[in-house]
């Protein structure tokens, strides 16, 4: 067992991650998974969780935390009438289907495979954030019909494989078709709800009976980490919502983009270093 002092430091790291993830949930409409997954990966590694299940456990636990933070963020944004409820209603099947598909993939993919998926998506998102221009658009109207449903499934699947609430991907999707960033952020909080709830059940199923999981785990979800972080994130999320409606996001986008690149390099080092 690690020394008590070291465990205390890691508990502080989890608390700090809870604060940051809560702020991000409000500011970007995301569940903070891009912060939590790499933190969990380090903590679970230090606690000697086997490499074969460590990334899976990090992603599943992050998904579980996204449920309350996304609900909290969605409620706050909806009070401001900023949510595109029609888009959410159109994805009522597509997003959960993508989340379930992600858990099925996670049940069969290796730890290295999951880390590479995280790195690939994180780098694309980071580049988008670092070099984003308001003038970058694919079109002026969101796709309809089958195109809209495919987008929902893809966002749900990729988000589920990364342990994120879909906010980063949905923000990119909506703004690429001319939607205002504040509407995208607000709607993304609802996307997180539709992805994370089925994602919990999927990652419990995917990890059921796996050897080497730490105390307090059900499948690929560790409830001790959830219990530590959720109360903090719930308190902090409304602060992020206030920031989202009162400030420019450019500096935050730059900071988040740099963070994603550093996390990606860390995961690449864990694979090839």
Automatic annotation (TrEMBL):
<dbReference type="InterPro" id="IPR002781">
    <property type="entry name" value="TM_pro_TauE-like"/>
</dbReference>
<dbReference type="GO" id="GO:0005886">
    <property type="term" value="C:plasma membrane"/>
</dbReference>
<feature type="transmembrane region" description="Helical">
    <location>
        <begin position="57"/>
        <end position="75"/>
    </location>
</feature>
<keyword id="KW-0472">Membrane</keyword>
<keyword id="KW-1133">Transmembrane helix</keyword>
<comment type="similarity">
    <text>Belongs to the 4-toluene sulfonate uptake permease (TSUP) (TC 2.A.102) family.</text>
</comment>
<keyword id="KW-0812">Transmembrane</keyword>
<feature type="transmembrane region" description="Helical">
    <location>
        <begin position="253"/>
        <end position="272"/>
    </location>
</feature>
<dbReference type="Pfam" id="PF01925">
    <property type="entry name" value="TauE"/>
</dbReference>
<feature type="transmembrane region" description="Helical">
    <location>
        <begin position="7"/>
        <end position="37"/>
    </location>
</feature>
<protein>
    <recommendedName>
        <fullName>Probable membrane transporter protein</fullName>
    </recommendedName>
</protein>
<feature type="transmembrane region" description="Helical">
    <location>
        <begin position="184"/>
        <end position="208"/>
    </location>
</feature>
<feature type="transmembrane region" description="Helical">
    <location>
        <begin position="87"/>
        <end position="108"/>
    </location>
</feature>
<feature type="transmembrane region" description="Helical">
    <location>
        <begin position="114"/>
        <end position="131"/>
    </location>
</feature>
<feature type="transmembrane region" description="Helical">
    <location>
        <begin position="220"/>
        <end position="241"/>
    </location>
</feature>
<keyword id="KW-1003">Cell membrane</keyword>
């Amino acid at each position: 067992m690690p020394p008590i002092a070291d465990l205390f430091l890691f508990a502080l790291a989890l608390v700090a991650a809870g604060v940051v993830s809560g702020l991000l949930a409000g500011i970007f409409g995301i569940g903070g998974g891009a912060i939590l997954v790499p933190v969990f990966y380090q903590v679970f590694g230090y606690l000697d969780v086997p490499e074969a299940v460590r990334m899976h456990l990090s992603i599943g636990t992050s998904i579980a935390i996204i449920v309350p933070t996304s609900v909290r963020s969605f409620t706050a944004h909806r009070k401001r009438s900023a949510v595109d409820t029609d888009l959410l209603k159109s994805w009522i099947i597509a997003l959960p289907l993508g989340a379930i598909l992600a858990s099925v993939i996670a049940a069969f993919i290796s730890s290295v495979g999951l880390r590479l998926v995280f790195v690939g998506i994180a780098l694309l998102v980071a580049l988008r954030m670092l070099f984003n221009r308001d003038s970058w658009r694919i079109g002026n109207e969101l796709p309809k019909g089958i195109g809209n449903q495919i987008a929902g499934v893809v966002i749900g699947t990729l988000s589920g494989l990364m342990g994120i609430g879909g906010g980063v991907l949905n923000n990119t999707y909506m703004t690429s078709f001319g939607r205002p960033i504040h509407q995208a952020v607000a709607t993304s909080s609802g996307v997180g709800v539709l992805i994370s709830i089925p994602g919990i059940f999927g990652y419990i199923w995917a990890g059921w009976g796996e050897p080497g999981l730490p105390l307090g785990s059900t499948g690929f979800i560790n409830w001790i980490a959830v219990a530590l972080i959720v109360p903090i994130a719930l308190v902090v999320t409304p602060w992020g919502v206030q920031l989202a409606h009162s400030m420019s996001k450019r500096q935050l986008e730059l900071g988040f983009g740099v963070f994603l690149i550093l996390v990606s390099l860390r995961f690449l080092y864990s694979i090839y270093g």
